[in-house]
Amino acid sequence: MWALRAGYLVEGVVPVVPAGVLAEAWHGGARQARLVQLLAMCEIEDLNERRARQVGALAAATRHDDVVDVSVVEGTARRGDGIVTTDPTDIAAITHAANASIRITVI
């Protein structure tokens, strides 16, 4: 992950982390020092009312009930980004159901 982040820095890319992804990963405490370091180099994208409605509509359209995964796909499609994940199965299914063309990088 750190090598991937270094490549993004060279290209001037700031990774975006949806707030829901942060909530799923966050357990607090000193054991998450590396996560804190990584997050310091990222933009955290809020889930405001407008985005929540868009995510809900996409969840209904794709018949997928994990709103965090759906929010990842929604934001990525809206921004024209790619997705970096350790578990591409659900993300790929939502992307396919949404007819979105998104590059998924598995780490």
| Helicity, as a percent range | 55-70%
User: Assembly state here?
Assistant: single chain
Q: Report how far apart the termini are.
A: 7 Å
CATH homolog superfamily: 5'-nuclease
Tell me the structural class: mainly alpha
Secondary-structure element pattern, one letter each = HEHHEHHEHE
Keywords:
single chain, mainly alpha, Rossmann fold, 4 strands
Structure, described:
The chain is globular. The chain has a single domain (2-106), classed as 3-Layer(aba) Sandwich (Rossmann fold). α6 (88-97) links the parallel β3 and β4 (104-106). The chain has a two-stranded parallel sheet. Strands 3-4 form a two-stranded parallel sheet. Helices cover 57% and strands 11% of the residues. The protein is built from 6 helices and 4 strands; from the N terminus they run αβααβααβαβ. It starts with a helix and ends with a strand. It has 107 residues and is mainly alpha-helical. The mean pLDDT is 89. The chain has helices at residues 2-11, 19-25, 33-39, 49-62, 67-79, 88-97; strands at residues 16-18, 43-45, 83-85, 104-106.
